[in-house]
Design a protein that fits this description.
The complex is a heterodimer of chains A (429) and B (304). Chain A has 429 residues and is an alpha+beta fold. Chain A is 52% helix and 14% strand. Chain A folds into 2 domains: 148 residues, D-Maltodextrin-Binding Protein, domain 2 (3-Layer(aba) Sandwich); 200 residues, 3-Layer(aba) Sandwich (D-Maltodextrin-Binding Protein, domain 2), CATH 3.40.190. Chain B folds into 2 domains: 42 residues; 243 residues, MetI-like fold. Chain B contains 13 helices and 4 strands. The longest helix of chain B is centred in the first third of the chain and has 41 residues. Chain B is flat and about 80 Å long. Classes of the chains: A alpha+beta (429), B mainly alpha (304).
Chain lengths: 429, 304
């Protein structure tokens, strides 16, 4: 057996060398590496990189990794292997962002944002920046500060097809939930499917339900539920879940909505197979590519109650963070400051039909780009987002809630049964 | 002195051999053994994927034992596997038998039958999503299947195939079988072509009909190949998930969940990497157990 000793040692040494090579920290250079997931922005980012090199001499290496699910996992793997680029995005929940920060992987940009009288921070959308901010005494135990740079802003609202509504004799979009149901029934009568959304993707379903939860019970009661002070079996939560029974029974929802991905839902709306859709502001670009002649408008989801304002999800769309131990940290921060300046933001918005995160750029864009995008931007006033809530629900409970809604839509469970299941899980956690 | 030279020569010979397999060994260690051991290590921790890990011993396994969603997903994978074993392999065998004969356009059929397996699962999912689309536009069925059923005079059979818990999993299993039968077809056809044709002629001279020839010659000689095809079908079907994701996204409630989707959901949906690793360990053990049983059966079949 002894004769194999030397080769074995060699194997171990080779392995250690390979592993050591993997985790070697990068040296400072005149290049910065940016990893992103935004296929629609890639060409513009490449143009920006060329322009930035001409202006400053700093080379920005742009690498696209799509789709976003894969990107998100790749970032976690890169963080574990300590090979993160200088600039990257964390497409995950706030607790995970907090874990990245606590692990020393994200730079605190507060000083840069507040430099020169806070010019950079003040130029950016407040809602978008709030998304990137950790307040003093936050529940995640993160040092207060701003940890990201929003590149654009987004929100999720409802869209309506003007032509299909007119065919059903509807002259204006509904302003209340009752009107919406009446319109849906009118659409059904002329053989038009009323509503589509990508509810095969649970986050979109959760977003829709959350809008009505805010409308029915207000944010304090929602947060109290997350804290365990209010039960999901509370009548208000049953009322939220009952909306889906109503939508199902009144024939509002497109067949197969619970397994439909958002891309398919976008296709259905763009090809005029449904009169209403629930989608994010990025859809302007998507619909334009799918059907440039689509005539549609934007509206807030019609409120069910007057008790509390209906809040939609919105805030920072895409954003970047800077690797805390990057040897090119200052250059990375400078590039992000340049990227969020009005000139670049206007160009980015024009090329991609996204709402810019820079306030000045937003004003310029709305006057020249798209009225639909303008409507979306007004929705930002009604927006909120789980990332800025003081408390978040356990992801397992959220999954059970969303899957429960799917079960309601396919007629498998009642709102009470779902509420009981969710509460039982919450009690167990 | 002689023995020393001999020992040195043996050592040199062994070392040379070892260095030839070293690259493969290193790759295997880095990409298989290390992740596997690390997965077992992580399964005893609570970890969101980043930041500190908390050792919790066998807590994840304990929770997993009582996780009905997990065991349901295992049953779903078993159901898909069962359909694949029966439907997919029966189809593959029948077509292989047909193509083993002297028929016209034999090569064309072989190519056509091998198209589904070479397509990506995402593409297959997209194609079948269109075929199974339950929607109507201007009173016309968009999905090909429902359109054909409607126009052929069976409107009562028009159905939301992927949106109904009663049909969703079976539909997925059939699509999976459609996609996978080509592999079995190729392997079984290759196996059939190795059978000496003189055996068939001898059987015919002895008065054996096609059925008896099949039962007493084809089937016994094909048994080892059939078992290999079965092992591959089981392993492939138990691990199916891309097709499901492309057909029903995050699933029809939990009716279309399979183990890999649960593992993915634990990792990306709820950020429970430790729990996901525990699921992966249990799933790996189940797959290894099934493979081991099939290997024993295969060895026995070869001996008989």
């Amino acid at each position: 057996m002894r004769k194999y000793q030397r080769p074995n040692t060699l194997v171990i040494v080779s392995l250690l060398l390979v592993l050591a090579g993997c985790s070697k920290p990068p040296a400072p250079s005149n290049k910065i590496l940016l990893w992103h997931w935004m296929t629609d922005c890639n060409d513009t980012f490449l143009k920006f990189a060329q322009q930035y090199k001409q202006e400053t001499g700093v080379e920005v290496i742009v690498r696209l990794f799509a789709p976003s699910d894969s990107y998100s996992q790749m970032i976690i793997a890169a963080a574990q292997a300590n090979v993160l680029p200088d600039i990257y995005g964390i497409l995950n929940t706030k607790p995970i962002v907090a874990d990245f920060i606590k692990a020393g992987l994200v730079d605190d940009l507060t000083r840069d944002m507040n430099a020169n009288g806070g010019g950079w921070a003040e130029g950016l959308s407040d809602k978008a920046l709030a998304d990137k901010r950790f307040e003093t005494g936050n529940i995640y135990g993160v040092k207060a500060g701003i940890y990201g740079v929003p590149i654009d802003v987004t929100n999720e609202e409802m869209l309506y097809n003007k032509k299909l509504l007119a065919r059903a004799g509807i002259t204006s979009p509904p302003s209340t939930y009752e009107e919406f149901i009446k319109d849906a029934q009118a659409l059904n009568r002329v053989g038009i499917t009323p509503f589509v959304s990508g509810w095969g993707e649970l986050w979109l379903l959760d977003c829709f339900a959350s809008n009505y939860a805010f409308n029915i019970m207000g944010e304090e009661k929602i947060f109290a539920t997350f804290r365990g002070q209010v039960k999901y079996t509370d009548p208000d939560w049953i009322k939220v879940l009952s909306i889906f029974v109503d939508l199902r029974d009144k024939g509002v929802l497109m067949d197969g909505i619970v397994t439909k991905g958002n891309k398919y839902a976008e296709q259905d709306f763009a090809l005029e197979r449904a009169a209403f859709a629930f989608n994010g502001s990025w859809c302007v670009n998507v619909y334009h590519d799918m059907n440039p002649h689509l005539d549609y408008g934007v509206m807030l989801p019609p409120p069910l109650s007057t008790a509390f304002p209906l809040k939609i999800w919105g805030g920072a769309g895409s954003s970047f963070v800077v690797r805390a131990d990057s040897p090119n940290k200052d250059k990375a921060v400078a590039f992000l400051r340049w990227l969020t300046a009005p000139a670049q933001q206007v160009l980015l918005a024009r090329e991609t039909n996204n709402l810019p995160s820079n306030k000045e750029a937003l004003k310029q864009v709305l006057s020249v780009v798209s009225p639909v995008l303008g409507k979306f931007s007004r929705g930002m006033e009604e927006s909120t987002h789980p990332t800025i809530w003081p408390v978040n629900e356990d992801p397992l409970v959220t999954e059970a809630f969303d899957k429960g809604i799917q079960a309601i839509i396919i007629g498998e469970k009642t709102p009470r049964e779902v509420a009981q299941d969710v509460q039982t899980l919450k009690d167990r956690r | 002195m002689n023995s020393k030279i001999k020992a040195a020569a043996v050592f040199k010979d062994n070392a040379q051999n070892f260095f030839f397999v070293l690259p493969a060994f290193v790759i295997f260690c880095v990409f298989y053994i290390y992740p596997f051991l690390n997965m077992i290590f992580l399964s005893s921790h609570e970890w969101p994927g980043i930041g500190p890990m908390h050792f919790i011993g066998l807590q994840n396994y304990k929770e997993l034992m009582g996780d009905n969603l997990w065991w349901d997903s295992m049953a779903h994978a078993g159901y898909i596997t069962l359909i694949a074993l029966v439907f997919q392999n029966a189809l593959a065998f029948a077509l292989a038998l047909a193509c083993d004969r002297q028929i016209r356009m034999k090569r064309f059929y072989c190519i056509v039958f091998f198209i589904p397996p070479v397509l990506s699962e995402v593409v297959v999912g997209l194609i079948w999503n269109w075929i199974l689309n339950p929607e109507l536009q201007n009173g016309v069925h968009i999905g090909l299947l429902n359109h054909l059923l409607y126009t052929s005079g069976w409107p009562q059979l028009v159905h939301n195939w992927l949106g109904d818990p009663k049909t969703a999993l079976t539909t997925i299993a059939i699509v999976h079988s459609w996609k996978g039968f080509g592999w079995g077809f190729v392997m079984l056809l290759a196996g059939l072509q190795t059978i000496d044709k003189q055996l068939y002629e001898a059987a015919r001279v002895d008065g054996a009909g096609p059925w008896r020839t099949f039962i007493h010659i084809t089937l016994p000689l094909m048994l080892p190949v059939i078992l290999v095809v079965m092992i591959l079908t089981i392993l492939g079907s138990m691990q199916v998930f891309v097709l499901i994701l492309s057909m029903v996204n995050e699933g029809l409630v939990h009716h279309t969940d399979v183990p890999v989707i649960r593992i993915l959901s634990s990792m990306t949906g709820t950020n429970r990497f430790g729990y996901a690793c525990a699921e992966a360990v249990i799933f790996g053990v189940v797959l290894m157990g099934v493979s081991f049983i099939m290997k024993i059966l295969s060895d026995r079949a070869r001996q008989t």
